[in-house]
Amino acid sequence: MPNIKSAKKRMRSNAKKANVNTFVTSSMKTAVKNFEKEVKANNKEEANNELNIAIQRVDKAMSSGKIHKNKAARLKSRLTKMKNTME
To answer: Is the pTM value of this prediction over 0.90?
Structure first.
């Protein structure tokens, strides 16, 4: 446990940032899984909605630095390809 005031504050702020980071990445992964589930079920309209949500979440994670831009591009490419092969 830190004794210095600034170190205590740093611990508090790191804990808050960790919660936000976890929320952003887990919501991204959940959106991707929901899209994949709709593709498996062959629901085209729902898959389109879930694809839009997943792409928004991936972009948000990328812009805030949670994932690398190449990973974001790879994910979006794979998801779009999944949707296109469904048709």
So the answer is: no
